[in-house]
DNA sequence: TTTCGACGTCTTTTT
DNA sequence: GACGTCGAAA
């Protein structure tokens, strides 16, 4: 039996024990937030609350996973607690009740697909014929998404985020509406739709809302500062009857503004749930005071914050964090590799060391160096393997089998064939989608008799028919399609060898699924984390690898030793945030998040020579470091090659 | 209508 | 430095 009083400090205990009624927890970095959630779940279970009546929601998959697994480590019953990301929760509800909003079934569009679809709508109304400068599909999708997630009109979004494009507002508004119609027509849901449809369902169908509200008696939302308006609305609709809602967040760690997240949600929570308790967790259990001093110095430079000061709870002593100056990224990588080994020699396991960066590309020299030295590493963030062309190619074949009306998938697999471009694909697609039931022979009949692609079309139709035959395991379907796709892959990519491995890995994952639809939905909402790129040598040594991660993906995690790289103007803060004060503030918070991941060792690395492509520009040290308050709390050292004093930093 | 090469743009974070 | 887009040739 666990003794809470020994495990928790008074404020933590207060949170854990306040199981009834609304609570807002402001939890500073490293303040034992996950631990509190964990114990709160246990406490509820001890009070004989059914674990299925507890709902844990969060914004990112990684946070969701760690939350659920930590809770179940003490008490097996906690495994039955429901939860996940808002998106996956929404999907599970919508899947059950799709008919209530007028759909039999639906397919989920990932970000790429949605952009494609938006692009299609934009092209249809001919915006690019008149004006080449019209925003491109990815920008359009971003604008539309922002308007939905912030619940603001296109005009408002344009004014704020893209003043240069303001005059296009009404056209974009039209594209937004067309896109909406297009999705309905094709039974497509994009990520935003999952939230919106759930919200609509909860608003319009009081019976369902009551049912869910009664089912989920206790609701907890983690990383509340990263939720957007629809997510806040969902939380409210589910919780307003019993008001047993706890949200946990830290306004200083809000780093998803670009997705429409707003820390206003934290400020507004007490208004939505009057009488809510507000509890601050400030004691830090993660880092020693010298690291916290730097974090506090960074924090004090930030505006619009709940005042906060991290205080080290345990009596930990440690070294001042070091600021290291290097000539270029290669020197830096070399030093890092050596240091990682050195610490490993002192007993800090590889998996307790992490290198964090703003953007994935700054880690490439390091990846090369680690590879060369045979240090195992794993990369998080950046281009995911499930977003790579070959994986999407193959999955698209599965998609058309699951849903023959999926014209985006059709277009993708048809244009893979020699001699078929967008136009031909479109004409074939429209033939196919007019029939309800899919018949692979459709591909053979059209006007394209005798065309050079006739043979490849036949091959495709055979492969699909074969794979799609009734009662096949997904694993076997996948294997058949791989056979079909293999020659195309070899033709299309130079590095097909590596890509085959990805597909093999994915094939293994499909073994776990019995329903194709579930596999595809999971693939979009909850894609396999496994495929994150591992270095070749990770298999030889059995030791768990060093973590290379974007700061965004590192949120909520901690390591003994953290190296931050790319701390220069243009990378952190990233160049395109510079003309917007809020953008810079978000970068500032990002830096704060990065610093507070470290427990014992913290190294900040800066290199002087620019990454090459803008000519002869030299890096400037990040403005977030270059203040007397921050610098005075760092130990400055030259890195490799005796980097001299007379630098321009 | 497709494909390939030149040119210009942007460089990001996640569901 | 890579990627996407546009224009011209096949």
Question: Nutshell version of this structure?
Answer:
The chain is of the alpha/beta class and 649 residues long. Helix content is 48%, strand content 12%. It is globular and about 75 Å long.
Q: Report the β-strand fraction as a percent range.
A: 5-15%
How does the overall form come out from the CA principal axes? globular
Low-confidence stretches: 530-541, 641-649
Terminal Cα span: 56 Å
Count of alpha/pi helices: 27
Alpha-beta content class: alpha/beta
Count of individual beta strands: 17
Overall mean pLDDT stands at 83
Overall radius of gyration: 26 Å
The residue fraction in helices comes out at 40-55%
Task: Give an account of the 3D structure.
Mean pLDDT is 83; it is low at 530-541 and 641-649. The protein has 649 residues and is α/β, with parallel strands linked by helices. The structure holds a DNA duplex (15 and 10 nucleotides).
């Amino acid at each position: 039996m666990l003794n809470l009083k020994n495990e928790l400090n008074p404020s933590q205990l207060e949170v854990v024990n306040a199981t009834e009624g609304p609570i807002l927890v402001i939890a500073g970095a490293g303040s034992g937030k996950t631990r509190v959630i964990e114990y709160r779940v246990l406490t509820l279970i001890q009070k004989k609350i059914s674990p299925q009546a507890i709902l844990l929601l969060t914004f990112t998959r990684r946070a969701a996973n760690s939350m659920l697994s930590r809770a179940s480590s003490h008490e097996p019953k906690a495994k039955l607690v429901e939860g996940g990301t808002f998106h996956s929760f929404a999907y599970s509800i919508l899947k059950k009740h799709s008919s209530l909003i007028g759909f039999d079934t639906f397919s989920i569009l990932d970000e790429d697909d949605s952009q494609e679809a938006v692009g299609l709508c934009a092209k249809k109304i001919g915006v690019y014929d008149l004006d080449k400068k019209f925003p491109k599909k990815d920008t359009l999708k971003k604008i539309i998404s922002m308007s939905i997630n912030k619940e603001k009109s296109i005009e408002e979004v344009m004014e704020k985020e893209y003043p240069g494009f303001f005059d296009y507002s009404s056209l974009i508004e039209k594209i937004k509406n067309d896109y909406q119609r297009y999705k309905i027509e094709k039974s497509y849901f994009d990520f935003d739709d999952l939230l919106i449809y759930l919200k609509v369902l909860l608003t319009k169908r009081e019976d369902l809302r009551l049912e869910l509200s009664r089912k989920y008696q206790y609701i907890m939302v983690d990383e509340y500062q990263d939720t957007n308006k629809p997510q806040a609305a969902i939380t409210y609709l589910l919780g307003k009857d019993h008001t047993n809602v706890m949200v946990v967040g830290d306004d200083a760690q809000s780093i998803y503004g670009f997705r429409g997240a707003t820390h206003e949600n934290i400020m507004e929570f007490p208004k939505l749930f009057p009488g809510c308790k507000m509890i601050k967790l400030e004691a830090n259990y993660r880092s020693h005071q010298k690291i916290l001093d730097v974090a506090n110095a960074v924090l004090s430079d930030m505006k619009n914050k709940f005042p906060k000061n991290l205080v080290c709870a345990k009596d930990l002593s440690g070294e001042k964090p070091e600021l290291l100056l290097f000539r270029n990224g290669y020197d830096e990588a070399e030093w890092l590799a050596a240091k990682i080994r050195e610490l490993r020699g002192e007993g800090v396991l590889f998996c307790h060391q992490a290198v964090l960066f703003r953007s994935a590309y700054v880690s490439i020299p390091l990846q090369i160096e680690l590879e060369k030295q045979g240090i195992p590493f794993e990369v998080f963030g950046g281009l995911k393997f499930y977003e790579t062309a070959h994986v999407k190619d193959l999955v698209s074949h599965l998609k058309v089998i699951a849903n023959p009306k999926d014209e985006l998938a059709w277009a993708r697999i048809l244009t893979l064939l020699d001699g078929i471009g967008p136009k031909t694909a479109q004409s074939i697609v429209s033939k196919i989608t007019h029939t309800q039931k899919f018949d692979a022979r459709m591909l053979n009949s059209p006007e394209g008799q005798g065309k050079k692609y006739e043979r490849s079309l036949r091959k495709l139709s055979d492969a699909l028919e074969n794979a799609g035959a009734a009662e096949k395991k997904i694993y076997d379907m996948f294997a058949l399609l791989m056979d079909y796709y293999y020659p195309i892959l070899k033709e299309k990519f130079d590095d097909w060898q590596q890509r085959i491995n990805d597909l093999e890995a994915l094939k293994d994952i499909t073994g776990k699924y019995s329903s194709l639809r579930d596999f595809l939905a999971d693939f979009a909402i909850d894609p396999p984390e496994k495929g994150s790129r591992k270095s070749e040598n990770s298999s030889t040594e059995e030791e768990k690898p060093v973590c290379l991660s974007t700061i965004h993906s590192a949120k909520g995690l901690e390591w003994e030793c953290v190296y931050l790289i790319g701390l220069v103007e243009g990378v952190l803060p990233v160049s395109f945030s510079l003309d917007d004060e809020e953008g810079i503030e978000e970068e500032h918070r990002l830096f704060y998040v990065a610093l507070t991941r470290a427990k014992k060792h913290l190294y900040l690395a800066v290199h002087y020579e620019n990454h090459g492509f803008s000519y002869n520009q030299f890096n400037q040290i990040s403005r977030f470091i270059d203040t007397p308050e921050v610098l005075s709390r760092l130990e400055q050292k030259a890195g490799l090659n005796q980097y001299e004093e007379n630098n321009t930093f």
